[in-house]
Design brief:
single chain, 316 residues, alpha+beta, Helix Hairpins, HSP40/DNAj peptide-binding domain, 4-stranded mixed β-sheet, 11 strands, 20% strand, elongated
């Protein structure tokens, strides 16, 4: 640290109040515990604390401005060391002695963080009130939970094991979607300094289903039907997420035709549930007997049809 003013984002014309405000702001955003993923946070925080230690006291600030001490508070050659001046009148905070009555209460939080950092940073430290110096919420824990398709659609309860031991019951809400995150309050890591525990965040991975496919709040199903059902129509059973229901196949149904079962989709938190869309697919018998073959040959002769005719209209 060559220039404590620059560390705090100030110039030499800064007032005592400017120094105090700048320090308070930087402490609240730069503490290592608040930036666990930033490896440079601890060094930056120490530099901020050292700069404030130097400039908060009018006497040491004046000696720095006069060139009598350097940015680390060390005496220049042939001069006394900075520690000889820590008891100078007007020093608002004396090392290791806590707060004096004239200290602005708004600075207490910043001072607590600084003192805690000096005594090991993350392991607890000094407090003017005789308690843990710094309390903050614990870190959130992140989990991935694989869920069966129907459990997500209909809702279910399951258990997960936490890293620290013990099981916790998780309520899968009705209509839960793939990638949705559930929050379990207070099931994360304990908070440093007696702070509240973090949360457990559970991201759901919904397994695909062999029959059902979800699009938004609608359920899609491909329903195989026989040749005679396609020609003559009739009632058949179709699976839904809540169990089988009857569906009327209209006469002359073609493969690819989609029928709608209203309200048989995913239940919404508000409003009506989604629908189930049933796509028909004609399936020929596994064995083509002679009677069916002869019938179709005679039918083709008397009922010529070209279902692909429209594909070629306007081609040239």
């Amino acid at each position: 640290m060559n220039d404590p003013y620059a560390v705090l984002g100030l110039t030499k014309s800064a007032t005592a109040d400017d120094i105090k405000k700048a320090h308070r702001k930087l402490v609240k955003t730069s503490h290592p515990d608040l930036n666990p993923d930033d490896p440079a946070a601890e060094a930056r925080f120490k530099a901020i604390s050292a700069a404030y230690d130097l400039l908060k006291d009018p006497a040491t600030r004046a000696r720095f401005d006069a060139g009598e001490i350097d940015a680390s508070g060390q005496e220049k050659p042939e001069r006394r060391y900075y520690r000889d001046f820590t008891d100078a009148p007007g020093n608002a905070y004396q090392q290791g002695r806590g707060f004096e009555s004239q200290v602005d209460p708004a600075d207490i939080f910043a001072e607590m963080l600084r003192q805690r950092s000096r005594q090991g940073g993350r392991g607890g430290g000094f407090s003017p009130f005789g308690e843990e110096a710094f309390a903050m919420p614990g870190r959130d824990l992140h989990f991935s939970l694989e869920v069966a398709f129907l459990d997500a659609a209909r809702g279910a309860r399951t258990k997960i094991s936490l890293p620290g031991g013990g099981d916790v019951e998780v309520q899968i809400p009705k209509g839960a979607a793939d990638g949705q995150t559930l929050r379990l309050r207070g099931k994360g890591e304990p908070g440093p300094g007696g702070g509240p525990a973090g949360d457990a965040l559970i991201t759901l991975a919904v397994r695909p289903h062999a029959v059902f496919r979800r699009e938004g709040d609608d359920i899609h199903v491909t329903l195989p039907i026989s040749v005679d059902e396609a020609v003559l129509g009739g009632k058949v059973q179709v699976p839904t997420i809540d169990g089988p229901v009857n569906l009327t196949i209209p006469k002359g149904a073609s493969s690819g035709r989609t029928l709608r079962l209203r309200g048989r989709g995913i239940a919404r938190a508000k409003g009506e549930p989604g629908d189930q869309l049933v796509e028909l697919r004609i399936v020929l018998p596994p064995v083509m007997d002679e009677a069916l073959t002869r019938f179709m040959e005679d039918w083709r002769k008397s009922h010529p049809q070209d279902p692909r005719k429209n594909l070629f209209e306007g081609e040239m």
